[in-house]
Amino acid sequence: MTATGTPIAVVTGASSGIGAATARQLAAAGYRVVLTARRKDRIEALAAEINESGHQATAYALDVTDRAAVDAFASAFRTIGVLVNNAGGALGADPVATGDPADWRQMYETNVIGTLNVTQALLPALDASGDGTVVVLSSTAGHGTYEGGAGYVAAKNGARVIAETLRLEIVGRPVRVIEIAPGMVKTEEFATTRFRGDNEKAAKVYAGVAEPLTADDVAETITWAVTRPPHVNIDLLVVRPRAQASNTKVHREL
Ligand code: 8X3
């Protein structure tokens, strides 16, 4: 708790998409939200928007793969109520035979090492709150593979394993570990980042899908899970659009 008694929620990757939507919703739910991302201008603008709406937010530019920077960030907090490990993403959709190892490495760095860095650094402050919550945004990709997905699937399996293992290791301490695994979510950047700005390829991901999930849909599931009473641990919440029955079975109206 802070001096004013308002619990803090740290959201990584808060500059857009699910992270930004989660920051808005957790702020509305009564948390003082700390927005982190590499792009300072974006998180500062979002923090200003949240503050103007009467809620509380601050922005802190942070690259989750930079451990020294993460440690410096963590040293500013004595207690933290919630950590949402949202920073991550996909790069490329090439088959195993031709995938770029540099893409695989970068996905491991952001999705796995980034989550590890921030979770390790903030765990003492989460513990100190007496009622902490760690959220790991994995993906349905962390629960089943698909052609062209191996690099991302491997990285999201890593994120999933952090959540599962940490929950075992800290049982008895006052910290919950929640994994949220979204399927197809249409955000402004996920697919265009994956395809390095190729809008045509990015559009194909969602082609003919009547209603992919939105960032707000996922932020609602995160906020719901986080705001359950402290003794209730939502271990895993898988959320997909109705049109997506599995990673490889999507209804498209083309
Ligand atoms: C995103 C889901 O299907 O693009 O995390 O791997 S998918």
TrEMBL record:
Highest taxon of source: Bacteria
Family the UniProt entry places it in: Belongs to the short-chain dehydrogenases/reductases (SDR) family.
Annotated source species: Streptomyces noboritoensis
InterPro entries: NAD(P)-bd_dom_sf, Sc_DH/Rdtase_CS, SDR_fam
Entry coiled-coil feature ranges: none
Leader sequence segment: none
Protein known as: SDR family NAD(P)-dependent oxidoreductase
Keywords: Oxidoreductase
